[in-house]
Automatic annotation (TrEMBL):
InterPro entries: DB. Residues 27-124 form the Domain of unknown function DB domain. It comes from the Eukaryota. Residues 1-16 form the signal peptide. It comes from Ancylostoma caninum. Keywords: Signal. It holds the Pfam family DB. This is DB module. The keyword Signal applies. The lineage of its organism: Eukaryota, Metazoa, Ecdysozoa, Nematoda, Chromadorea.
Amino acid sequence: MRTAILLVAVVFIACAKRDGNQKFKACCARQKTADKECKRKFCDFNAINQNNMLHFLNMCSPRGETAKLMWDCASSRHDHLECCKKKNVLPSCMQYCESSHSVPPDYLNHLVCLQNFDAIRDCFRDHLEKNPNIFGDN
């Protein structure tokens, strides 16, 4: 009987899926060259928002490829244009939704996009709720 209960528990744990935020965190954990402090502070959809995005970029952009690697984890390098359109993201900010490349480097030229960041972030999270992260983690 104990063996059967243990087997059921193992199967349940193995089949349990991560949510989008857990997949984001798992992806960041695999980014070994990304700055540890930036990962600790910002690899969490609940910790990044339009009010602290400049802080993230100012802190993490100078730290090698950290901002790029974390953006890749958040965005899944996926094209989120349709989702962003549904969430009424400004046309001039759509380049942040089309994430199959990387984070646009000239973010200071697009400060108006900060008001749309929460919508963009929600598109990233919604995608990860239903899909594996860039490393295939479910």
